[in-house]
Write a structure and sequence with these properties.
Length: about 425
């Protein structure tokens, strides 16, 4: 496989800062030409040159400038070695094995989720249970518990605090609310092989259920009485909306830069994981160097996870995915494998520009992505982010919890190995 190199991007803009500051760092984004087309109902696309993202660092420095060291990725002989699974793997890893060191914490969380959602709204509660009971791995709260226990050892903390546990519950509620809304926006009929909330209860109830869970999680978040964590998690909810707008603005856009895909992936996926891992470290009482490293770990793991998910959309069956294969491409959501494939296959652009109007054109596009190296180059990108995530853990002492965090990286890559 070819090596991958990365060029850092600095993000800024007033209040667009995960650490809660108000940096004046300027971020000159590329023109979101499709946004106007969404509002006008038109999707006419030009064939102009590939646009680039221009970033300029302002005089006010903020840690947010390190949030997205995500790549303008090339495959022309980069200097960074890709992650070798053999360096990290302790055999094939299952989610059950992965989280067994925090199994008791997760069991307590599952018991608490019903009560924290609240029983005063039976319809909304039933809607939430539809997705809570759909077999999710509880990855995000597990990350909270793993980082909490790994960082607690640094400061001599013997047991998790009530704030650690509440944070994990809040994170899972926010994640669940985002899934409910995502399924409405994507018009998805299946989630983890089961009917989605809006399929069972209708769109109106689904939207209200998601809103209710966002509101309930915000109330519990405020009661944590930690302004740094409140700002951190509040930013995540903003990021969800920003990610959806960016995705809608780039549908069927064959000139979408890889950088923009990664920014959107951060907003929609990595932001919550990064906030989860940093928030856990904050409640352990570690210093800012450790909390920032935990943020970077969650960010890089989240980006790697999203790239892997996007690869699986092309390589797994509908039964394995719990949704139709190639569903993102069918809706015009161009992910890393497609963006890479477009660089080598002109015919793919024509098919996407037609919005798959011809019979069999979607299947043809999927085969082109597979045959011209799009999958392999996306795998390299996922491994690059995974390697960075492992490096971010070097600040932690050796323990079974740090080992589980490393195994989380390996487990993700094993999904495409």
């Amino acid at each position: 496989m070819m090596p991958v190199t990365s060029q850092s991007l600095d993000f800024g803009g007033k209040n667009l800062v995960a650490c809660g500051c108000s940096s004046s760092t300027s971020f000159q984004r590329y023109t979101m030409r499709n946004y106007a087309k969404v509002n006008s109902g038109g999707w006419s696309r030009g064939q102009g040159d590939r646009k680039s993202v221009n970033c300029k660092r302002g005089t006010t420095q903020c840690r947010f400038s390190t949030i997205m060291k995500i790549a303008e990725t090339t495959v022309n002989g980069g200097t960074q070695d890709s992650l070798d699974l053999k360096n990290y793997s302790r055999g094939l890893i299952s989610p059950t094995k992965l989280f067994e060191v925090v199994a008791d914490d997760l069991q307590t969380l599952n018991k608490n989720l019903k009560s924290i959602v609240g029983a005063e709204n039976p319809v909304l509660m039933s809607a939430a249970e539809q997705i809570f009971g759909a077999g999710g791995k509880r990855m995000r709260p597990a990350m909270v518990f793993l980082v909490a226990r790994a960082t607690a050892e640094l400061v001599g903390l013997k047991e998790l605090t009530i704030k650690h546990r509440r944070l994990a519950e809040i994170i899972e509620m926010i994640h669940t609310a985002s899934l409910i809304h995502d399924d409405v926006l994507d018009e998805s009929n299946l989630r983890r092989g089961k009917e989605t909330v809006h399929q069972v209860y209708g769109t109106r109830v689904a939207v209200l259920a998601g809103d209710f869970m966002f509101a309930q999680s915000s109330w519990y978040l405020a009661n944590l009485e930690n302004i740094e964590v409140i700002k951190l998690i509040s930013q995540v909810i903003k990021d969800f909306a920003s990610g959806e707008i960016r995705q809608a603005s780039g549908l069927f856009d064959c000139d979408l830069p890889l950088e923009e895909y990664l920014i959107k992936s951060y907003y929609k996926t990595a932001s919550l994981i990064a906030a989860s891992t940093k928030g856990a470290a904050i409640f352990s009482g570690t210093d800012s160097n450790i909390t920032d490293k935990m943020f970077e770990y969650g960010k890089n793991l989240g980006l790697s996870f999203q790239v892997v998910d996007d690869i699986l959309d092309f390589t797994q069956s509908a039964e394995q995915l719990g949704k139709p294969a190639g569903s993102d491409l069918a809706k015009g959501n161009l992910t890393a494998p497609v963006i890479f494939a477009l660089e080598k296959e002109p015919n793919l652009r024509d098919i996407i520009d037609s919005e798959f109007s011809d019979p069999g054109s979607l299947d043809e596009a999927i085969e082109l992505v597979k045959s011209c190296g799009g999958i392999e180059r996306a795998q390299e990108l996922a491994k690059e982010k995974a390697d960075l995530a492992v490096q971010n853990l070097q600040c932690l002492p050796q323990s079974k919890f740090r080992e589980a965090l490393e195994d989380m990286v390996t487990y993700n890559l094993q999904r495409i190995d």
